[in-house]
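Aim 2, interim progress. The first record below pairs a target sequence with its structure tokens.
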Amino acid sequence: MAHLDQKRSHSRVDVYMKFLKDYTGKHIFQLDDKDVLNFLVFKDVNDSGKTVVHHRSCPNLGIANIKDCSDKDLCSKRHTANSMRIGIVQKLRKGFEEVGRRGPFVPSTCEGDPTNSVLVNEYIAFKHREQGEAGVAPKSARTMYRFKMDLLMENMRLTIKGKRGSLKLRLSERRAMYAYCFSAIKRLAGAGHVVSRNTYRMPNNAGLVFNCTWDKTLRMNTHCFGFKCVKNAEVWCAHCIIDEWVSLAKSFGFTFDRGLLFPRLNANGTINHEKRWTSKDLTDSLKRDLQRYHLFQGETPHSFRHGGTVDSLKKGKSLERTMYLAYMKNKSTAAIYSKGLRVLCTSGFQWEDAGIDVQEIQPEQLSLQMQSWKAFY
């Protein structure tokens, strides 16, 4: 548990600022724009990126690998310009702002925010031009559509019914994680960080509410979201599936008055307190579960967030409500995640086939209501 407490105390801002200081060997008040630029270049070429970028003169433009490229420096896997700007530069900017380094950077006095400098802005603009000439387009995860989700939930239910012991327990947990992420429009990796004591049950067992967001950044007590029980209206219900997982786990001696709602399990069915779900583990598990039922088409842990967004809009829920549930800050993000809806519409999808409209939870009432609700565990 000491390991988990330590992880909870560090946000991505803290992580990137530590990387920058370790890379340069300087204190935060000694850093300048050249240090930030060198760090960004290092991150761009150290194989941590996933996007293939060919040089504009490379004959292999348009190919998704670099194995046939003669110059592995000009053609390599990189970070997209937007990913670097949002994922790294903005995190560093927040770190500098937290210690009072705000405003445009002044090279002569080394005052201001080093990320807010001409040098850094020109580098991001260069990456945009470079990737534009290389024809790089942002890629999105394949959408986990509702019809496939229905098949996955039912097939896993039948499989779990025929299993015993730790295998039944592990399958039940993964099924609950999939249902949670699809219904709550969250990344699958985020499910592995949900604290059980921050999960509440609505009155009359009407649904579940979660009082925190564990995901790429740590946000405690800032985002209340949840979903109602729809067992009488839908073919499967995330609320009921999570309850099934909890009931089964309790029969194995688990308690939910502490720790995580979806802890990492050992092969023998015991909780591994030293390890959480990683992106690779989730990717491999999801692929195996989908392949077992011949449903795999390249889906990733991010596919549930895409699928949940599409399913919410498809059922007639407003864009504002969908964005709140998914914790999306702007409409451009929602547009990316709702691409799968346009695919359905252009492929002959009929709106009347969207299913039953489920009444939404009013987010502005959650914080007040939760004060009188019974804790989930």
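The second target in this work package is listed in the same format:
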Amino acid sequence: MITSVYARIVHRELRQRGIEDSALFANTGLTEASIWNNDRLDNHGFLQLLSNARRYLAAESVGFLIGGRQNLPAASMMGIAMYSAPTLRDGLQAMASYSSLTADYVRSELFAGPETATVKLHFDSIGECHDIHVESVLAMIQDYLESVMGNQIQAAQFLISYPPPPLAESYREYLHGKVIFDAAFDGLRFPAQWLTLRSPFADNGLWTIARQQLALGLQAKSGADEAPFTRHLRSYMRAHEPPLPDIEATADSLHLSTRTLNRRLQEEGITFRQIRLEATHKWACRLLVDGASVEAVALALGYGDAANFRRSFREHTGMSPSGWLAAQRDPINLVAP
């Protein structure tokens, strides 16, 4: 299922261009009433709607039509969470957490790095509508970043996994940073220092409501999803650089008590310590590959001394830090972007 907001925007824009409803809704199972009276739509019908729209907008990008004609608050609670968040990091992490609740075939991830932050986009089974989704999501993220920062994000890199499409020039028109086609994944990279920027739209009341709604949304998926809270925590850890958040800060990301969070994780067969340790050792691998000494890695990750770090690393990987590093033939594949 997907929020009806995007279908309503497409319907509005094509109606203004004189396209009849019978043409737009052909083979979708949707009607004007269904997209305006229901909050969520069936994936198949929505994807067919996008395909129909592309047919009648040969000279325009459907994705940029969607992403470039709205503000994120239109995207339901996800947009409210992003704009009410205290910092850009909080807002982009809220997007990552809400993305699977807004559309169950779309997911975003935020990775914090020493110099560069990365947002990765994942789309499941959307076929010929892949580019439309990439365009609309990148345009919306750009709108969010520029609204918070107050200027164009020319230092960003927009990564597109497919070759330049027929309307490639529209990418350079709508996206203000460097556009790279044939990339390894869809998403964008930008200076990591942006993550700490405070948002002028921050609102404590709305931010509290957004976190509460996220926790409720994750709990609602617990029956169908194997481990929604585990997925959220892993995503939350990836969005931070060392020292990684403790359980109090992590529970606060969902406006939960630590007791409730621990109970949710116990139901999913995992502990907070396991998730945090997993993220810690991913950072250890990254820092070792980047050339940091064992002592420097231990200090960065909050270990009391190098001996404690070596012991923990061996328990987690079965190898010493130096042994693990020597065994790596293609270390790029072992670390986050």
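The chain has three domains: 2-59, 77-196, 274-334. This observation will shape the mutagenesis plan for the next reporting period.
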